[in-house]
Amino acid sequence: MKIKSMVSKLNFLFAIFGIIVLLISGHAYYELTKEKLSINTTVIILFITLASVITAVRVNRKNTKYFLIGLSVISLIIYALWNLYAKTTPISDYQILLEGANKIIDGTFKQESFDKTNYFYFYNFQIGYTSYLALITKIFGDKLIFFKILEWIYLIVTSVMIYKICEDRYTKDIGAIAATMYSLYIPNIMGSSVINNQHISGALMVTSLYFILKNDKKSAAIGGVFLGLMQIFRPIAIIVIIGVAITYLCKVFSKTMYLEILGILVTYILCFTMVVKLVDFAFVKTEIAPKAISQSNAKYFKFVLGLTDEGVYKIPTESARKTQVYFDLERLNFDYDAYNKECLKVIKNSITNYKETFPFIKTKMYDFLGKRDNQYSFSLSEEKITDNTFKLSEIGNLQYLFLIIGALGALLGKFKRNNKEIDIICLLFIGFILVHIFIETQTRYRYEMYILLAILAGEFISRFMKKTKSVL
Fold it and tell me: Domain total for the chain?
């Protein structure tokens, strides 16, 4: 009974924290966009959103297969149309990664990855995704359309897995609503023309969650493999590991079959670790990387940027290759041990002088949670960023507000229910918020949050619909 009480209290605390974050997000959104808010636009978008989810629920109730196929086809058409308009060419880091992929193919990548002054040495975590791009180039050629089609597929897979998680964990209605809201979310559509690691890592994350939530060792092993692959492409899996660990450890103490439950958690973590270690070994053995890519050479730079918004020596970025990190390292003759020590000093100083650091973090998180997603700036050239583009992105931000309100409603509803297990969706949402308090932020880094917000919002909208059954 004490353990069940503890789980209830933890869920209560998670819900409270989530509610606070969502209220701050909503307030930040309003303060940062209130002059642009249009009542007519708001009503129209709200109507379209409700009409879409009502249609999705009705189709899904008749035939889930047709719903998922229909959602996938509609998403594919929307992504293709956006790509025809955007004609996105890789810029910034994305261009460097594609160049690196071509060098892996022609066998000259070692000259970069082993060079301590090079992008791929101080950002060695990018080598995993770069190797993936090399593999795709080897199979399909270097035409951008093949990479973009794969981005669309990953977005569609994410939608389907959102549905499957909701179907297993909640209801089919919630799955249909959440998947539809995610698929029609404008920042995701705008991002579909950008070749980046977020889409594939997001698809791998939700697939991993789908399997681990099945609560058996075989599924846990598969889930661990998917999470390991996610870590190779985008090193944020630790948030999922912590969330899953908290969830399963609470189960261990609250159920009689604790050894079996603990075995599931251990299997998940072991398979995750094995995948990461095997990939590390393969990269070192083939001399794609000089050392394990799971161990960052520049260990703390994201924390320095996240706590100060500048490098150790306050030298501004000039280009994707000559960033603040590059200039800091240059000042230290590319001595990585010395650089990491200097970073730790900056971090320690920021924490010690918290009165100076807190206002910056407050503003940073306010902007991160409330500002318009800047995905469009990577998908469109300057001449295509017009008033209509801004209006479209403002509609996307309005959709973001709806997700926030829906998620807020879901968390408020959790107070009425005495949950026997930790709500992992709420927990992961909190995890992705917390980590960004300390590291560098951009509004496009909210991508994983959108997945979790869609699930939470789907839960609330489904309950709302049940109370107005005549709508369905």
Answer: 1
